[in-house]
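User: Could you check the structure of this?
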Amino acid sequence: MSVGPSVVFYTPAARPPRFEFCDNRTMRGALVLMVVLMAFSIPVLADPPVTTLRIEVKTLAGTPVDRASVIVRFLGARDYLKLGRKIRTSWETRTNMDGVARIPSLPQGKLLIQVIAKGYQTFGQQYEISEPDKTLEIKLNPPQPQYSVHD
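Assistant: Sure, the predicted structure tokens are below.
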């Protein structure tokens, strides 16, 4: 008994089914859609516009306040278009002898700025920044006299 290679011939009616997921037109349409989506996603993935901030801290008389603590907090903490990637949200520095503090390249948007200096009232205010370079002049008030309900 001789066993040789077995050959199977398929007739057109007995041919196994061919699975085609899509034709050429569908492939072209999917490719065009993918290119369009990539073209629109490039600006979304780009870095947000930034600004450099210069803060001048002065007294009511206009003299500079040196060694004042300046805290800047970016209020838009996460960028959801970048899949929640965290953005730096806080900067802390001190003013120089001229009363100037510089904060380099922070995202444009809503900021909370606080200034704390010995012998002056604490300052805090929100700002909306939309320019590439911004200078803010902050005037600090002298401390108020102490108040007591027992007098």
